Amino acid sequence: MSWDRRLFTASTLAITILLLPACRDREQPRVDYVPLAQIEQSYGQLITVSNAPTPNQNGTGDRLGLFRDKDGTIWGIPLTENKDRGVLGCAPPNLRDFPITDTLPADAEIVGAANEPTGWREGTGKLELLLRDSAGVLRWHPVAAAEVKNGAVCWSQSEPVQAHSYYRLVKAESKK
């Protein structure tokens, strides 16, 4: 390879290395994790927990808490722990303005949460809630999450570091 060709190749490689970070999506600002008591003041009492669902074996091992506020809205909020093993939660400041992600049956009572089994090692599957209906029948109900498109987000506390989705669940209108 000629000297000119080597110089051109080295220059191209150097420019690519310098410009590559600029092509990456800008990381959204991070929201701090705060004591659980502070989260419960805004989003109601913690009713159950699960691991946050993860796609493509890109798991974070992070926890997700489900909170029920005074209006009956269920909020899926990331959880972690501090050095004293106290529970902390993270909610974007404008979470109440985000769209509803899914609707629960009108007569549903949440008794638990888990990740849907996928049957293979490609992630954990969607978040499923274990619901009890008014007749006492238990059934699994998958629910959808959404990404925070603008503004500050909660970031995972374990590798790979990634932005958390959110859940805002409401009950369907009763057919009485």
Structural key phrases:
single chain, 176 residues, alpha+beta, 2 helices, 10 strands, 16% helix, globular
In short:
This protein has helices spanning 3-23, 36-43; strands spanning 34-35, 45-51, 63-68, 74-81, 87-89, 102-104, 109-115, 127-132, 138-143, 167-171. With 176 residues, it is α+β, with helices and mostly antiparallel strands. It has one domain (34-171).
Question: Can you describe what's shown?
Answer:
- With 176 residues, the chain is of the alpha+beta class.
- It has one domain (34-171).
- Helix content is 16%, strand content 30%.
- It has helices at residues 3-23, 36-43; strands at residues 34-35, 45-51, 63-68, 74-81, 87-89, 102-104, 109-115, 127-132, 138-143, 167-171.
- Strands 1, 2, 3, 4, 5, 6 and 10 form a 7-stranded mixed beta sheet that branches.
- Strand 4 and strand 5 (87-89) form a beta hairpin.
- The radius of gyration is 21 Å and the shape is globular.
- The model is unreliable at 16-25 (pLDDT under 50).
Quaternary class: single chain
Helix-strand topology string: HEHEEEEEEEEE
Strand content: 25-35%
> What would you report as the Rg, rounded to the nearest angstrom?
21 Å
Low-confidence stretches: 16-25
| Coarse morphology | globular
**Overall number of domains:** 1
